[in-house]
Amino acid sequence: MKTWVAVGLFCLWAFILPATARAEWHEASSEHFLVIADQKEKDVREFTERLERYHSALLGLLGRANERPSPSNRVTIYVVRSAGQVQKLAGDKSGWLRGFYQPRAGGSVAFISRVESEGKDISASEQVLFHEYAHHVMHGVSEWSTPRWYSEGFAEFFATARFEKDGGMGLGLPALHRAGELQYADGVAIEELLDTDTYAKRKSKGYDDFYGRSWTLFHYLQMSGKRPGQLKNYLNALVNGATELEAAQKTFGDLKLLDKEMNAYLRQSKMSYLPISASKLTVGAITIRKLNEAEAAAMPIILESKRGVDPDMAAALLPRAQAVAAKYPDDPAVLSALAEAEHDSGHYAEALAAADKAIVAAPNLVNAHVQKIYALAQLAENTENPEARLKQLRKAITALNRIETDHPIPLIYYYRSLKMAGKDISEIAAHGLERALQLAPYDQNVRWQVVQQMVDEKNYSTAYRTLLPLANDPHKRGDDNPAIAFLAEIKQKWDTQIADNTPKSAVPAAGK
Fold first, then answer.
1. End-to-end Cα, the chain, rounded Å
2. Which structural domain, as residue segments, surrounds residue 495?
3. What are the pLDDT digits (tens) for 310-331?
4. Residue pair 493/455 in contact by the 8 Å Cβ criterion
5. Which of 48, 50, 211, 313 has the most neighbouring CB atoms within 10 Å?
């Protein structure tokens, strides 16, 4: 079903609300999200409900089951008071950033500025988050890497949403936030849009309309009704081995004509979107608690640690973490944050001590167990006789696995512990690593390890398919992507394996 909405593609306003100084941290836990926000309880609840409605709508439109993930495989969203705080965390100096997302096994995180969840329309922060979450979901529903225009067009399409008072919502609305870009930015030719390599070679140094044009093409193919089935046919052509440009030419025909149709589509006074009734959406239970004084004091430390730090940043952060821990020496969340800061500074024994103390205070605190695993792994790597540390590491891995069976970190580090010990990789360890990739298909490091293990097993066909998303990463198309060369190496070994296993009687004699 489609609904029409009036379009004013060249009207765009951004409102930035002033932030007050007093922190008021709340944590909302739902089926698919953990939201930690410096906002009032009412606002945090409304925002989390919207997230769950969005997730349910997105999965429903994609025809996917709305499964409940293990707690640590949810996305954790940190909501800070201002866009300036987001930009500082990201190291962004443009002044435009409103949020960003970092996918990682057992710890995918997003950082956005505060949201106002009243009314139908979404905030700029929500729009950024929905864009990134659409990417997150795409990784989970498809093992194939798509062309850059499709990936960004998909994310932009599902980033435009509205929430109805009756509990329903709409997706695929006009991308008003791309209005200025489409009108004023450097234009991207249709051939550049449809071929990632060509775009990378010709990309101007200035700001262009790639995202806006990607949204336009995706929305046009999905919603206009003028080219039914072409989006599906295009993807099928790619899966069957066509290059990006070949798939486009085969499916869309005259690309100049397609470009004209897209331009005409933008000039329409109305565009359709997809309404979803409340009866088709599932929110589930949401529990909210206010962070205690110690947890709130540790939040600035936690935000920087979860963002990720380099050695200089870690050295600057550690004294602050130690100061908070000195004030709240028995709080498990503070001790867990201290363990992470000590680890990031290279103080692995101190990290282990802090993690152990946190576990004594809160035996089921997952992050404390994760930090203990990290610390023990580093201690094992940095000693000439690692067996004692590896024994401790495997014990810590088992402890976390008992708390949360589908946490990917124990699966990953059990495999690594065998590698560190120089032992043969057991079938259980190999399958555990593959399970970690199933749980976190967006984690590139885990994918790389899985591929290497498959190559060691001479399972070249599966290794090739598993590596494809990395080799076809639209953001890394050159020499900076080692997966491209590795893929070619795997293909060569695969071809040799096929030839070696082909009976000689099946090979035609020369001249026949």
1. 60
2. 456-501
3. 999 999 999 999 999 999 999 9
4. yes
5. 48
Please work out, in degrees rounded to the nearest 5, the angle formed at the alpha carbon of residue 386 by the alpha carbons of 380 and 388.
100
Is 220 within 8 Å of 261 (Cβ atoms)?
Answer: yes
Query: In the 8-state DSSP scheme, what is residue 163?
Result: E
Token couple for 453: 């293990």
CA distance 470 to 468: 5
Q: What is the C-alpha to C-alpha distance for residues 112 and 115, in angstroms, rounded to an integer?
A: 8
- Residue 46 forms part of a structural domain: yes
Instruction: Pick the closest to residue 99 from 120, 126, 118, 135 (CA basis).
Output: 126
Nearest to 370 by CA among 190, 159, 107: 107
Buried b (16+ CB within 10 A) or exposed e, 295-326: bbbbbbbbbbbbbebeeebbeebbeebbebbe
Domain count, the chain: 4
Distance of alpha carbon 372 from alpha carbon 393, whole angstroms? 8
Helix (H) or strand (E) holding 77: strand 75-80
What is the C-alpha to C-alpha distance for residues 152 and 355, in angstroms, rounded to an integer? 40
Q: How far is CA 53 from the centre of its chain?
A: 19
pLDDT of residue 22: 65
What's the confidence (pLDDT) of residue 65?
A: 83
The reported pLDDT for the residue numbered 512 is: 41
Under the banding of pLDDT at 50, 70 and 90, the label for residue 197 is confident
In a domain, 463, yes or no: yes
Q: Does residue 484 or residue 323 have the better pLDDT?
A: 323
User: Within 13 Å and on the Cβ side, how many CA atoms surround 371?
Assistant: 36
Instruction: Calculate the average pLDDT of the chain.
Output: 91
Residue predicted with more confidence, 510 or 48: 48
239 lies in some domain: yes
pLDDT in tens, 239-272: 888 999 999 999 999 999 999 999 999 999 999 9
Residue 390 has pLDDT above 90, yes or no: yes
Same-domain check for residues 397 and 428: yes
Give Cα separations from 60 to 64, 170, 171, 493 (angstroms). Answer: 6, 12, 11, 41
389/324 same-domain check: yes
CB 37 within 8 A of CB 114: yes
Q: Where are the alpha helices (DSSP H) in 104-171?
A: 124-141, 148-159
Strands annotated E in 277-433: 287-290
Q: What pLDDT, in 10s, does the model give residues 109-122?
A: 999 998 877 678 88
Final residue in a domain of this structure, among 263, 291, 319: 291
CATH number at residue 321: 1.25.40.10
The pTM assigned to this predicted structure is: 0.89
Do 166 and 182 fall into the same domain? no
47 and 141 fall within a common domain: yes
Tell me, yes or no, whether 7 lies in a domain.
no
Are 75 and 33 in contact, with CB atoms under 8 Å apart? yes
Mean pLDDT within 133-147: 83
Q: Are 255 and 248 in contact (CB under 8 A)?
A: yes
Tokens 């690309």 sit at which residue?
Answer: 255
